[in-house]
Amino acid sequence: MESKLTLVTPPDFYENSNLSLLFLSMTADEQSEVSVWLKDNKIPEDLNLYTYQGEPNVEWLFYALARSDYKYINLDSDDGITNVLSSYIISRPNVFWHTKNEDLKGVLEHISGAYVESITDFLKKLFDSDK
Questions:
Q1: Beta carbons of 20 and 68 less than 8 angstroms apart
Q2: Which residue segment(s) compose the domain that 118 sits in?
Q3: Hey, is 7 helix, strand or coil?
Q4: What is the Cα–Cα distance from 130 to 22, expressed in whole angstroms?
Q5: Which of 43, 48, 61, 117 to pair with 103, CA 20 to 30 A apart?
Q6: Which residue in 75, 69, 78 sits closest to 90, CA to CA?
Q7: pLDDT tens-digit profile of 62-118?
Q8: What pLDDT sits at residue 1?
Q9: What DSSP assignment string belongs to 18-38?
Q10: Which ranges in the chain belong to alpha helices (H)?
């Protein structure tokens, strides 16, 4: 039996006991990477996938941040809300982050050691994949 994926976006809320992932400020390429990775890998459980792309709904963002088991944030986005809140977000438990900006990476590594090379690396860490 295949796992079920439930996509949750602002302003919706969703409550169940499924593992929940939050993706913040993904690029179109990262969205494609996630889709391909989830299609190619057998996930043994149903997942809730929360996505935030800078919508002006900070209450929803804080809810999703608290509700999700694991989070990924792309710090190279132009999303002003995510950028303003980024140091707070990466200081939270189970938040993995990515940036191509080496100067920013050097600063943020003092706040969180959960840097990942890519969104695919984030998924591999969570699901222990060798692909």
A1: yes
A2: 5-127
A3: strand
A4: 22
A5: 61
A6: 75
A7: 999 999 999 999 999 988 898 899 999 999 999 999 999 999 999 999 999 999 999
A8: 61
A9: SEEEEEES--HHHHHHHHHHH
A10: 28-40, 58-67, 80-91, 102-108, 119-127
